[in-house]
Amino acid sequence: MNSRTTPSVVQKAGRIIVKVGSSLVTNDGRGLDQAAIARWAAQIAALRALGKQVVLVSSGAIAEGMLRLGFEHRPTDVHELQACAAVGQMGLAQIYETSFRAHGIGTAQVLLTHADLADRERYLNARSTLTTLLSLGVVPIINENDTVVTDEIKFGDNDTLGALVANLIEADVLIILTDQRGLFSADPRKDPAAFLITNGIAGDPQLEAMAGGAGSSLGRGGMLTKILAARRAAKSGAHTVIAFGREEGVLTRLASGEAIGTELQAQTGHLTARKQWMADHLHTLGQVVIDAGAVEKLSREGKSLLPIGVLEVRGEFGRGAVITCISEKGVPIARGITNYTSGEARRILRKPSAEIEAVLGFVEGRELIHRDNLVLL
Ligand SMILES: Nc1ncnc2c1ncn2[C@@H]1O[C@H](COP(=O)(O)OP(=O)(O)O)[C@@H](O)[C@H]1O
Ligand SMILES: N[C@@H](CCC(=O)OP(=O)(O)O)C(=O)O
To answer: Where does ATP bind (predicted)?
Structure first.
């Protein structure tokens, strides 16, 4: 497992999630590490100049809030923790905005909870907002919305949050920057003989056995949540790299193909992962009956399904639901993720896409189902 066999996944990536842990961001709890943050901002600016889109998931709100409020130890009271997070988050937002501004790049604060990603409508909204921010050239800075969450509904650690964001926007790579050079064969703080694992397969149970808990009282997750995050990220086809955040030029060097830290490869590509997910939906909530022309476009030409080819909408479904496309004779043709609810689809069926806005007052896409979200049966 110790030699890298594939070219760098970061080099090839178009969309990257960078996650930075609390101990890195707050200089081991001594306060926001302005110099380190400025270095990451400069490197992310360089990645952007290479045409890559970057989302930053940053921890450190609680650690910074503790410092600002004078707590010497991490409070156990949940409301005190939430107060720390609220205070510390101001510091994070301020320092990221200033650091990226130095490179002419705008930032956006996005605070997410588990409920936001569990609810289909909010999930889609979060996805659209993030992709819009990226297309506007902004770097979204994401953290958990600690002030409103309780234990049962927490992500709890930002490694998991980073993976879910990778799934949400189908990132190519999740880079987890931490206070170790990567995954070691055992916790290097406890075992001096531990050696660095340079590459592996995301989801390999052997990796989980090597990873222990958090090394300091600042971090929540430890190495295990990073390994589990890699497994989760791989579900949507994202690879994971775990590396030391203070390594000079870590992000730009990774982007130039250098082997740094631990690279955990996803076994499935984006499209395969999404199609597998759709294929797993045996019971779809709705069906659309499509005309012979649409059957031809989908099955022979690999095109998207446009509203004009839809004859009838059956069942009730929301935006983002997986629905089945059937022919007039009732033969299942394809399954895919709909851009419109059943009610909206009924209003736009048989209409040219140019009329969607006039009918609905908005456009979610010119297709009812985009070809990337369609799997033939
Ligand atoms: N097998 C391992 N390899 C590397 N680090 C490990 C391993 N097992 C446990 N750890 C611990 O995980 C810590 C990193 O996790 P954590 O403290 O949560 O950092 P972060 O704040 O970056 O998320 C390391 O400092 C290390 O002590
Ligand atoms: N939302 C919390 C993050 C907690 C957390 O996951 O920390 P870490 O293990 O350092 O990434 C905060 O900003 O303090």
So the answer is: 19, 178-179
Q: Is the domain of 245 the same as that of 299? A: no
**Residue that finishes a domain, picked among 219, 252, 268:** 268
* Sign of the alpha-carbon torsion through 112, 173, 208, 217: negative
Q: Which residues have CB under 8 Å from 293's CB, separation 6+?
A: 309
Domain that holds residue 137: 9-268
Clarify whether residues 56 and 128 are in a common domain: yes
**Does residue 22 have its Cβ closer than 6 Å to ligand 1?**
yes
pTM reported for the whole predicted model: 0.85
Looking up residue 297, the CATH number of its domain turns out to be 2.30.130.10
Q: How far is the CA of 65 from the centre of ligand 2 (A)?
A: 12
Please tell me whether 33 is known to bind a ligand.
Answer: no
pLDDT digits (tens, 9 = 90+) for 141-199: 999 999 888 776 678 789 999 999 999 999 999 999 999 999 999 999 999 999 999 99
Cβ count near 83 (within 10 Å): 19
Burial class (CB in 10 A: 0-12, 13-18, 19+), 262: buried
Q: Which of 167-176, 305-314, 368-377 has the lowest mean pLDDT?
A: 368-377
Token match 């107060």: residue? 83
The 8-class DSSP code of residue 152 comes to G
